[in-house]
Amino acid sequence: MIESIDNYIQLVILGLCSGFSLYKAVTKHRRSWVLITLFYMAFFMGSLYWELFYIFRGSTASKFYVAEFSWYVSYMFLFLFLKYQKDPDALVPRCRIKWLIPVIAGGLSIYYITFGQIASNITSAILMSLIGMEAVKGLCSGSMRMKRVYIVTLIFFFLEYLLWTSSCLFEDGSVLNPYYYIDMLISIVLFVLLLCAQKALRDEVTE
Q1: In sequence order, what DSSP letters do the residues of the chain get, joined into one string?
Q2: Is the pLDDT of residue 58 over 70?
Q3: Is residue 202 pLDDT above 90, yes or no?
Q4: How many folded domains does the chain comprise?
Q5: Which domain range does residue 25 map to?
Q6: pTM of the full predicted structure?
Q7: How open is the CA angle 83-138-90, to the nearest 5 degrees?
């Protein structure tokens, strides 16, 4: 029951975010909105497959390659959005702290590998490292327009790893499992990310 509630909340939020960003992409004709739309739509498709599998099979898939592939694609679009939003003329100072991101991602992926699925864990570590490092570099650059986007992206980064870690530590489907509440929090963070991205893009136009 709690898993379905978690999934429905995420699907509703991702569906709203996808619809809104698609509207912006169509009306604004901007590459940034296209990337944001693709990020939310890919994430939505992964979550939709997860829930449909649960509905028709009555259990969570032990190996969910379709959902994982959708989420990997969404990570890549988020990375491209962050990369594209950088000011090409801005001088980015040396930001050594960014290397903490792949250390965290790599270290946790080694832990996750002990539970299986080597390729998927390595892929997740690479893509999430790209996202996290881009967000940290953005904060180091001092960009005020994108500051909130970078901060929320890092929150998303750490919540995803907290979610994956909780899935390794807690395997029961009870309402006390923190996995479901972390996942709901991620859904809220994704909604906040859209609001921050909208403001950043609006400020870019007015500058």
Answers
A1: -HHHHHHHHHHHHHHHHHHHHHHHHHHH--HHHHHHHHHHHHHHHHHHHHHHHHHHHSS--SS-HHHHHHHHHHHHHHHHHHHHTS-TTS-PPP-GGGGHHHHHHHHHHHHHHTTS-HHHHHHHHHHHHHHHHHHHHHHHHT-STTHHHHHHHHHHHHHHHHHHHHHHH----STT-HHHHHHHHHHHHHHHHHHHHHHHHHHHHH-
A2: no
A3: no
A4: 1
A5: 2-206
A6: 0.91
A7: 85
